[in-house]
């Protein structure tokens, strides 16, 4: 609590953990400030990615028309528009023609300051020639802003600055925000989550300002404690790992109480199989999850599974019908089943929809003639099966395949499979944890490659989490907090008794094929 005599800073640092609705909060505050924005001043929203830029623009546009003096974009595009283009030439720091490249300068065998000095020399030499690298944008902007007149003008122009995903700003970017704060003309709102600072591999910052600013008076700190994304069990679980916030479960629509499950296998195919089985096992997962994330530090973690299951990545049960249709389509179009989607050049979801149309068409008329099915297939998919094939052997073959196809489709136990059939928007996403940031899924499987990595994910000591330079602790938090209803964890190496005990203390339940056999579970 602030003492009475202490002035509360007009600048705000909003700490908002996973699933707290940061974007919604940000948009609300931006809208409020747009109302107060004089036409001669600007409001700036800094985002971390182009996708985030588009999302904020789209969501704002749903409610208001965005005025000309509102800028939403990455720090780089902001600095190019507001610093480099207007002032770089006047100060003769860049020539008339400039080219911005995303080329990254890599220098070997030099460390620390030496590395940065050398890198800056190259960046400066290139920018004098009009070639501005991605890294060079911030460096050049800071150089331009050293000029007192330019800095004062720049600061005066900007009335409001919002920074989304502040935890991902590096020191150079933070120095720009500091220039604006010290300029005293700008009100600043920084929004972020210290526990989701996972971009440190770019530039090591031991004590990121999102942490250090919390102990200072320059920013008034606000915490958003609500979690609108996850079930009560998941909110409780992820609370163990957040260093600043204990979140409150707020999405009362998620009533399921699915446990957090540790899958005991170390073999990837089996881990994935167990996970998909658990997703359809009401004892563990009340509602069958439609969107499933498979997360690991590296993409290649799941390669082994994906290669073995290409074209059929999804759970066997959910895709029995689609799989059967694909088998026949493969035979009719003379293409390998796994190559069909590519062959038709279609999105997976679109392809599945058409398969289902075909399914319902065949089911709708038990006496449908072979040539009608072929005509229908020709209207459904971009390549033709010609019923007038001159070679009668081939024609006979096609007829026979279609005949068997009809029989098989008719014989499917409709009631038993209908849930799976209409499950056409079932989605599997294999992602690195980094890529999953900002996204959410009904069910998440997070696979650690070693016990050491797993233990980092499960670290509950705040100081150890804060001093983790590798991001591993926070990567665990990001992975776990993507889940709405169901979270499973696994490890590719066997784990020790003490790790089991730790998982146990965290309320995690264990699952293996043996557990299933013991319980004699029947899957949906
Ligand atoms: N005020 C709210 N009321 C109800 N639902 C909300 C509210 N704010 C957000 N949500 C919903 O909660 C979910 C999580 O929100 P969102 O993805 O914006 O969180 P976030 O803070 O960006 O999380 P993360 O940092 O993990 O990406 C979304 O499904 C969103 O629609």
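^ structure tokens above, recovered residues below v
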């Amino acid at each position: 609590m602030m003492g009475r005599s202490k002035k509360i800073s007009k600048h705000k640092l909003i700490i908002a953990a996973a699933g707290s609705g940061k974007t919604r909060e940000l948009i609300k505050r931006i809208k409020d400030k747009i109302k107060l924005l004089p036409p001669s001043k600007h409001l700036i929203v800094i985002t971390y990615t182009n996708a985030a830029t588009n999302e904020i623009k789209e969501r704002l546009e749903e409610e208001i028309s965005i005025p000309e003096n509102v800028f939403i974009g990455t720090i780089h595009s902001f600095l190019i528009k507001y610093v480099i283009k207007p002032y770089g030439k006047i100060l003769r720091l860049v020539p008339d023609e400039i080219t911005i490249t995303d080329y990254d300068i890599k220098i070997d065998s030099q460390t620390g300051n030496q590395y940065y000095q050398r890198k800056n020399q190259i960046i400066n030499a290139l920018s004098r020639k009009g070639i501005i690298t991605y890294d060079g944008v911030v460096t050049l902007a800071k150089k331009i802003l050293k000029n007192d007149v330019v800095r004062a003008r720049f600061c005066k122009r900007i009335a409001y600055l919002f920074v989304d995903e502040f935890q991902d700003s590096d020191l150079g970017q933070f120095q720009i925000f500091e220039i604006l704060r010290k300029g005293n003309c700008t009100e600043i709102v920084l929004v972020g989550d210290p526990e989701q600072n996972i971009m440190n591999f770019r530039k090591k910052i031991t004590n990121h300002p999102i942490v250090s600013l919390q102990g200072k008076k320059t920013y008034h700190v606000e915490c958003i404690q609500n979690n609108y994304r996850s079930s009560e069990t998941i909110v409780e679980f992820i609370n163990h790992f957040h260093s600043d916030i204990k979140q409150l479960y707020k999405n009362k629509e998620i009533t399921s109480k699915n446990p957090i499950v540790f899958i005991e296998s170390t073999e990837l195919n089996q881990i994935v199989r167990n996970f998909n089985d658990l997703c359809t096992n009401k004892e563990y997962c009340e509602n069958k999850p439609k969107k499933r994330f498979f997360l690991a530090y590296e993409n290649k973690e799941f390669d082994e599974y994906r290669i073995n299951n290409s074209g059929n990545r999804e759970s066997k049960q959910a895709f029995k019908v689609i799989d059967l249709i694909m088998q026949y389509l493969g035979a009719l179009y003379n293409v390998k089943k796994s190559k069909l989607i590519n062959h038709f050049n279609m999105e997976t979801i679109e392809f599945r929809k058409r398969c289902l149309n075909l399914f319902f068409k065949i089911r709708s008329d038990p006496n449908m003639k072979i040539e009608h099915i072929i005509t229908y297939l020709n209207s459904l998919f971009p390549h033709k099966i010609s019923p007038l094939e001159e070679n009668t052997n081939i024609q006979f073959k096609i007829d026979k395949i279609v005949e068997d196809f009809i029989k098989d489709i008719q014989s499917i136990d409709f009631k038993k499979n209908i849930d799976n059939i209409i499950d056409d928007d079932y989605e599997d996403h294999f992602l690195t944890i980094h890529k999953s940031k900002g996204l959410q899924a009904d069910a998440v499987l997070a696979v650690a490659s070693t016990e050491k990595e797993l233990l980092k994910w499960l670290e509950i000591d705040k100081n150890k989490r804060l001093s983790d330079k590798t991001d591993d602790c926070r990567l665990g938090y990001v992975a776990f907090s993507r889940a709405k209803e169901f979270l499973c964890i696994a490890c590719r190496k066997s784990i020790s008794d003490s790790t089991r005990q730790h998982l146990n203390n965290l309320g995690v339940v264990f699952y293996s094929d043996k557990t299933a056999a013991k319980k004699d579970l029947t899957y949906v």
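Residues 392-411 form the longest helix (20 residues).
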